[in-house]
Every structure is written in C-alpha cells, then in structure tokens.
Specification:
Helix content: 25-40%
Distance between the termini: 76 Å
CATH superfamily of the largest domain: P-loop containing nucleotide triphosphate hydrolases
CATH architecture of the largest domain: 3-Layer(aba) Sandwich
Low-confidence stretches: 184-201
CATH class of the largest domain: Alpha Beta
Structural class: alpha/beta
Strand order of the largest sheet: 11-14-17-10-18
Number of strands: 18
Number of helices: 23
Shape: elongated
Strand content: 15-25%
C-alpha cells in the first residue's frame, strides 16, 4: 500500500515542503530510505521501528520503502521521524488512508514513542500556512510556537500513542480530546504594549549615567536613524553602561518584526517556550574571543550566526580591537548590506543581519591615550593597536563618540540626565517622521537611503552646500563617509523636527565623524 504524508524542513533560513512517500509491499523484508538523506535522517528508520514496537504495534515482514521528496535537496535533522512513522502506519493499514491527507506533520521520536521538540517549527508552519495548509500536528513542546501563526490550527502531541488516538478519531472527538491551539486574536496588539523591550531592561536606565552628554546624544542619534556607533575612551568611563542601555530607548518590535526575529531564533533552537514569540529587541554582547563562524554563521549544518541573531536589535562588541582581525573584517558585509552570505557545498545561504552595531574600545592598550601623564604606550604600540580597526570598518560606522573621564565634582554632584523613557520618546518621534517620509518605499530609516535617492531625501541649501565643500577640503573623507554624514544630519534634523537639513545639523554630524580622525591619523 502507498501513503503520502506532508512535512517540512529548513534550508538555511528558508522553509520548504517535504513529501514523505511510503510504500509497503510483499517481498524481502527490509526498511529502505531514499531521497538524499543525511545520517541522522537514515537513522529514523530504526527509531521508527523501535518506537512502534514499544507503542504496541508490531511490524509485519514487509518490504518498506520511504522516499523524502524533493530528492535533490539534502535532508538534515530528526524532524522527519513522526511523519515517517505516520506514513508507515497508513501503508500498513493501521491508520485510515486519508487520516493525514490535509495536515503537516513534524516531530522527532524517542525509542519509547515519545514525540520530542524540534527546531525551526515557526518558519515551517509560517511557510506552510502561506501555501494554504491549515492543520498541523507538532510536538507538544512546540505547539505554542506553531500556534503563533494566524490561521494555523495546531495540535500538540507528546507520544506516538496520542498520534494514533488523534488520527483515528473523528473531528468531534478530536476537538474534545485534543483541542486545537489557535492564535490569540489580541496577540498582535499586545506586542506593541511591551513598555521596555529586551532582557532585564527594566533594571537599567540612562538616568543612572552621570554626565557623558555627548555620548548619550550620539546614542539617541544612532537609535533614531539606525546609525552604527563607536564609543572610544579610557577604561571605567561608562562605555559599556551606555551601550547596554541603548536597547532601552529602541521602540519595541512590531508584530511583523517579532515574527521575523522569532523565526531566526526558532531555527537556531533558542526560542523559549514561553512566550511563543520574542517581543524584546535582541541584544547580543559576544566576548572578544568570538570566532568567525560563531559571528557570521554557517557550519556543516548551516545555522544563523550572532549577526543574524541580532537582527532588528543590537550587536554590541566591547574591547573591539582585542577581537581577531578576521572577526572584525567579517562585519563589513552585514553592516553594509544588512545580510550575510554563507557558501557551502550544499548551496549558498543568505541570512538577514539588519542590526545596530555598537562598538566600544580603549584608545590604546593601557587605555589612557592621549593623557601623557598616565599613558605609557609608545606611538608605534598605539598605532598597531588602533590599526586593528581598519579604514573600511571605520568608514562604515556613522558615529564616533568620545567617552571622557569625569571630574570629581561632576561625579559627586550626581545629577541624573534624561531617563530612558524620555530618550525613547524622542527616538520614536524621529522614527515616526521617517516612517511618514518613506511610506511606500523600501526604506525604513535614514541609514537605508541609497545613493540614487540622496538628492531627494538629503538635499542641501546654498549655505549648507558651501559649508560641506569647506569640510570636504579640510577633512580626508571618502565618498561613503560623506554620504553617511548627510544621512546622520538628516536624522539630527528629524530629532529637531526640522524639515530641512541646516548648518547646525551638518556640524554636529561632522563632529561625530571627526572624532575618529583624532585617533586614526
């Protein structure tokens, strides 16, 4: 007897449909699996055989052939165990022929018949729902994740025995024994009600940072226009404190962004069971010993890296020059293109990497340059240290803010500055201006503006044009850096609710571009 069961799999960041075809016939007893399978998929035959036996179902001496279609794509992982088991049961006559004909089934089997968690459920269900599939049979621990998709009727099962009971019951019995999980219609609205996004961000606030107004102003500009920021200064001045508080002034994820980010974490196996979707913006702070593969992603079984896990959030790299040169250079493509391409034998994979990059560093190995009284580093040592941050990387960073040592009087006065809530309100107001400006276009932020549209969105008056001409004559900047200055000035104008870019906006943008020239000269 022949049976077909629909399942799904992940290829890079994309999901595709897999048809599990099972044929049981007379002949030499065997369990053969084909379809360009990895080792763990081939092992599914033995897991299914033992799980069925421990569930109380004995397999007669049949010639069973299982094909996973499409056969030209390599199948990885253990998520095909459950659909293979269901297909074998239908082919053996243990289940009605059309019992699984209108649903997608996915799950790993234990030898005792338990249905175990698998990664990537969210994007698989999302892709299947777009193709018209409405019913899903998934592991119970993945049920809430799958039910986050609108129009998805999800049944979570924890054992092969429950699968048999579900597939042999009629619709009324199914609803009574296994009520479908349906998405909460109010969920999308509640996502935007999260007061402060991120992890443990209710415990930190910009108001705790005394002074450093220039660096905090740079943080507002960076978050308002999604401009990359480098913080440089002596140790203990608050660079890390500022960076860790930047997510507190970012607006919460929109429902679409929440689904997008949660899909990436689902593929990586890092999506928590509760809540079903991530509502806080990611904040990743890798140690400076991070490897190239961990940062960019890939591997034998391609997985998203840190730059993709930081999608729609913040990637903070402290002690930036201490990272290996090859690790720092990997940031070139994702910072510029907002994606990362990984080429492997199986194919080429593209992962999203639209993150806000925040770097922090000391100006020299001891950390006290240019204070000649405290700094004992030679010019050569300082040059070698700073040269670890190459010109192409600096060119891609829009803002460079100095974080200076505070005087004793300022520290003892302890006057709090703007709170995260007040700063976030200013950021949200500027972002709303950008949303209105870019409505109907592919842009979301000022940092997204491409060269062909610079004249439309960042036009300058006669005085401003003349001023920028003088700036270009005195500053050694590339064409990329010049256009980034204009984008930052556009964001500063939005923060001031100015329709036109004025001289003071340009001067402030130039100031944050000149800071790196103080050290890299």
């Amino acid at each position: 007897m022949f049976a077909t069961v629909t399942s799904g799999a992940i290829l890079g960041i994309q999901s595709y449909q897999v048809q599990v075809e099972v044929n049981a016939s007379g002949g030499l007893p065997c369990f053969s699996m084909v379809g360009y399978l990895a080792g763990e998929v081939r092992e599914a035959g033995e897991r299914v055989r033992v799980a069925l036996r421990n569930t109380g179902i004995s397999m007669p001496p049949l010639h069973i052939t299982v094909n996973l279609s499409p056969a030209h794509i390599r199948k990885e992982g253990t998520a095909f165990d459950l659909p293979i088991a269901v297909g074998v049961l239908i082919a053996m006559g243990e289940l009605p022929e059309k019992s699984a004909g209108d649903m997608l089934i996915i799950g790993e089997l234990g030898l005792d018949g338990a249905v175990k968690r698998v990664n990537g459920i969210l994007p698989i269900v999302l892709a299947a729902a777009k193709r018209g599939c409405r019913r899903f049979l998934v592991p119970a621990v993945n049920a809430r994740e799958a039910a986050a998709i609108p129009q998805a009727d999800v049944c979570g099962v924890s054992s092969l025995q429950e699968v048999l009971l579900y597939l042999t019951a009629d619709e009324t019995e199914r609803q009574h024994i296994f009520p479908y999980l349906k998405p909460d219609s109010s969920r999308s609205d509640k996502i935007n009600e999260v007061p402060v996004p991120g992890n443990r961000q209710e415990e930190i606030d910009f108001a705790e940072i005394i002074g450093q107004e220039s660096a905090k102003r740079a943080a507002i500009i960076a978050t308002a226009g999604f401009h990359h920021l480098l913080l440089i200064g002596p140790p203990g001045t608050g660079k890390t404190m500022i960076a860790k508080r930047i997510p507190t002034i970012l607006p919460p994820l929109t429902p679409e962004e929440s689904l997008e980010v949660s899909s990436i974490y689902s593929i990586a196996g890092q999506l928590p069971s509760v809540p079903a979707l991530l509502t806080g913006r990611p904040f990743l702070n890798p140690h400076y010993t991070v490897t190239e593969q961990a940062l960019a992603g890939g591997g034998k079984l391609p997985m998203p890296g840190l730059v993709s896990l930081a999608h729609r959030g913040v990637l903070f790299m402290d002690e930036l020059p201490e990272c290996r040169q090859s690790v720092i250079e990997i940031l070139r493509q994702p910072i510029e293109d907002k994606k990362v391409n990984i080429a492997r034998v199986q194919g080429s994979f593209t992962y999203p990497a639209d993150f806000l990059f925040i770097g922090a560093m000391n100006p020299c190995p001891c950390g006290y340059f240019p204070d000649q009284e405290k700094c004992g580093c030679s010019r050569r040592t300082i040059h070698r240290y700073l040269s670890r941050i190459s010109g192409p990387i600096l060119d891609r960073i829009d803002l460079c803010a100095e974080v200076m040592r505070m005087e004793a009087e300022c520290l003892q006065a302890g006057r709090p500055g703007l709170s995260s809530r007040e700063m976030r309100q200013r950021v949200e107001a500027a972002r709303q201006i950008q949303a209105d400006r870019f409505r109907g276009t592919a842009y979301s932020f000022n940092s997204d503006i491409r060269l062909k549209d610079m004249q439309q969105y960042c036009s300058l008056g006669k005085k401003e044009t003349a001023m920028m001409r003088k700036v270009l004559e005195k500053m050694d900047v590339s064409a990329r850096a010049y256009h980034r200055i204009l984008k930052v000035a556009r964001t500063i104008a939005d923060l001031e609710e100015s329709q036109d870019i004025k001289e003071e906006h340009l001067l402030e943008a130039v100031y944050y571009r000149m800071n790196d020239g103080k050290y890299w000269r």
